[in-house]
Write a structure and sequence with these properties.
By secondary structure, this protein is α/β, with parallel strands linked by helices. It has helices at residues 2-19, 34-55, 57-63, 99-117, 121-146, 155-183, 185-208, 227-281, 317-324, 330-333, 350-359, 369-378, 381-388, 423-438, 444-447, 452-459, 471-480, 519-540, 594-602; strands spanning 81-84, 89-92, 292-293, 300-302, 306-312, 338-339, 343-344, 392-396, 413-414, 419-420, 461-462, 484-486, 490-496, 546-551, 571-574, 583-584, 589-590, 621-625, 633-639, 649-657. It folds into two domains: 2-63 and 115-281, no CATH class; 295-416 and 463-657, Alkaline Phosphatase, subunit A (3-Layer(aba) Sandwich), CATH 3.40.720.10.
Length: 660
């Protein structure tokens, strides 16, 4: 009956606890969200109170006046004596035993006392379970839950890898603690102390001191800028070390190890509760029916008329113009094109820029991003026009969040399911990311690299025919895949790595170590890929009857301001049948013109007639800026000068907040 009451209490306690939590999803990279902090804090406090209520229920009952309830009376040493009615003396209960029997009882008591004083292997196993669960299961899964929209795979795809990581951690830790236990009990206790210090310090480091970590967007880390964080990490680890030593000295070995057992159980329950709540609130345990963005018909073009948009990510127009002087061969690459260096884009980052380029719809945080994008894509003037003119449409873009059946209007998108190409590679990349988040700043650079998130997003995941936006993959496909032709008109939207971080290409688009790369080399690689693509179109005989835009989703200039510097994206346009040397137009272009540009190009307009403003005419152009960590706050700017004159870009005063 007592066991039943305890189980009933536990079930009721946790049910009420879960129902009392209200969760709000937050997107980030490795920086834990405010929700995660709150859930861990509430879960930790609630579980701790529940644990101590269970452990000290007898003392609590005494506080309420119930002393020694039936079945709980302890035996005191005084109870071993009684009065002999014959001799009227106090006699010990063991006095009637023989000397041998007494000796055996004493020996048994000493053996039990010695056994009780020996450290238990259970403590090491609980520490192993807590560390392994936090590092090998909780942290990678929390990364996924905080970035669900960034990853194409779902929870069930990564579960085998998470179990593999957890199993590896459990086996390794068990072997280590078992060996230490067998070799020396002092060594074992020392390893328990080390494990507890490691557990507490990394837990605090990874869950509460990760807010200032550099972005994992491929940008190079400059660890010299984190001197304050290094000092903070050092203070944390020293404080935890001293705290553990003080507790060990104060409570002695037996009491200390018992406390470690309790602490590990509490932490395990706290982390598990946090995962469960976050997963349920963010839909993390739902099966992702992600349509496959395949390479089908990628190099199929029309004998009649084509509209081709090639997006080179993060290619800054100002930097391209600077590099043109060092690369005169680019004039031949872009013969027949008009270059618009005085162009203002739309958004600071790809996530919002690509939908705008395709739809002309401004995202002003009036509704959640996914629902906005789906609605905007459905109502896109570009797609409506292309469908009316019976274009075959191909969308080679992995950044879209298009959540209804209309995504199948693109002939390369089909039903499917992304899975892990390599469980081992996925586990390895996640371990690097956890190290980056949980270890002290002094040790982070040892296993950290800039493209960890990119590797998790793309290199460990895919399907047999999934489109890859990487420059080297596309270049290899262009060189080795035959281009085919059809009679129907064709539209192709192809988004490539371009000049985006990480800087891992040389000028010929070969993959090189990150420490040897640069933004300038990435730009050269992007133009190398473009040149090969345009040359193949010429060889196939579809170049002249194609309207082609080679453009960027945003710029990258870091001069003046890292966000406003992204407002000048690269833009090159060639109309159908155009033939002339590369032209440079200083007309004030804007991505607000794109929908009209697409329409005019399909009507066979030449590139020089697309912008309805003269070179000397002043034009005010809109640009919306946000930081990738706070996309729920979008600030409006207007540029009334030249696109690269960032001092002329002024905030309008309008700020758009996403109301959750």
């Amino acid at each position: 009956m007592k066991q039943f009451r305890r189980k009933l209490f536990g079930i009721t306690y946790f049910s009420i606890f879960f129902l009392c939590l209200a969760i709000r999803p937050v997107q980030a990279y490795v920086d834990p969200s405010v929700m995660t902090y709150a859930v861990q804090a509430i879960a930790g406090i609630a579980i701790t109170l529940g644990t101590f209520a269970s452990l000290y229920s007898r003392r609590l009952m005494k506080l309420f006046g119930k002393k020694n309830p039936v079945g709980t009376r302890s035996v005191r040493s005084d109870d071993l004596y009684f009065n002999d009615p014959q001799t009227h003396t106090t006699v010990h209960a063991l006095s009637f035993l023989s000397e041998d029997a007494k000796a055996r009882l004493i020996q048994q008591e000493e053996a039990l006392a010695e056994k009780a004083s020996r450290p238990s292997l259970r403590t090491g196993l609980l520490l192993t379970a807590a560390i392994s669960f936090m590092w090998m299961f909780y942290a990678p899964l929390q990364l996924y839950l905080n970035n669900i929209s960034e990853f194409r795979f779902d929870f069930y795809s990564i579960l085998p890898a998470l179990c593999l990581m957890l199993g590896a951690g459990l086996v390794t830790g068990t072997i280590v603690y078992d060996l230490c236990y067998r070799i020396s009990k002092k060594l074992y206790v020392g390893m328990v102390l080390f494990g507890l210090i490691f557990l507490i310090a990394t837990y605090i480091q990874g869950n509460f001191l990760a807010g200032s970590l550099p972005a994992l967007d491929g940008s190079k880390f400059d660890w010299s800028q984190y001197s304050a964080e290094r000092i903070q990490s050092l203070i944390l680890w020293i404080a935890v070390l001293l705290l553990v030593i003080v507790l060990f000295v104060k409570y002695r070995r037996h009491g200390f190890l018992r406390g470690v057992n309790i602490a590990c159980r509490i932490l395990l329950l706290t982390l598990a509760a946090t995962l469960l709540i976050n997963g349920l609130s963010k839909g993390g345990f739902r099966r992702k029916e992600s349509p496959i963005i395949s390479t089908d018909q990628e190099f199929t073009f029309s004998k009649n008329q084509n509209l081709i948009i090639l997006v080179l990510d993060a290619l800054d127009s100002g930097m391209f113009r600077t590099l043109m002087e060092e690369n005169p061969q680019w004039n031949d690459t872009f013969a027949d094109f008009t270059y618009f260096p005085n162009t203002v884009g739309c958004y600071t980052y790809t996530r919002h820029a690509i939908p705008y380029m395709l739809t002309g719809k401004w995202m002003e945080n009036q509704e959640p991003y996914a629902s906005f994008q789906t609605k905007a894509m459905d109502e896109s003037p570009l797609f409506s026009m292309l469908e009316e003119q019976e274009y075959r449409m191909g969308m080679y873009e992995t950044e879209l969040t298009y959540e209804n059946e209309h995504i199948y209007r693109f002939e390369n998108i089909h039903d499917g399911h992304y899975s892990l190409d390599s469980i081992g590679e996925f586990a390895r990349q996640n371990f690097f990311t956890v190290w980056f988040q949980y270890m002290p700043y002094q040790l982070k650079p040892l296993l950290s690299h800039e493209d960890m998130i990119s590797n998790i997003q793309h290199r460990a995941v895919g399907s047999t025919d999934a489109f890859s936006y990487e420059n080297d993959v596309f270049l290899d496909a262009v060189r080795n895949t035959p281009f085919t032709t059809v009679d129907e008109n064709c539209f192709r939207f192809i988004h490539l790595d371009g000049a985006h971080v990480p800087f891992r290409y040389d000028k010929d688009a070969n993959v090189i170590p990150l420490d040897q790369g640069s933004y300038e080399q990435n730009i050269q690689a992007a133009i190398t890929v473009t040149d090969a693509f345009l040359s193949k179109l010429r060889e196939t005989g579809v170049y002249d009857n194609s309207a082609i835009l080679v453009m960027a989703d945003h710029g990258y200039t870091e001069v003046y301001d890292s966000l406003l510097g992204r407002s000048n994206p690269f833009l090159m346009i060639k109309g159908i049948g155009e033939s002339h040397p590369l032209a440079i137009s200083e007309q004030p272009a804007s991505y607000e013109d794109l929908q009209n540009i697409y329409r005019d190009l399909c009507n066979k307009a030449d590139s020089g007639s697309l912008i309805p403003y003269s070179e000397n005419e002043q034009r005010t152009r809109r640009f919306l800026s946000y930081d990738y960590n706070t996309e729920s706050i979008i600030t409006e700017y207007f540029q009334d000068g030249y696109a690269t004159d960032f001092d002329r870009m002024k905030a309008s005063g309008n700020v758009y907040y996403l109301d959750d």
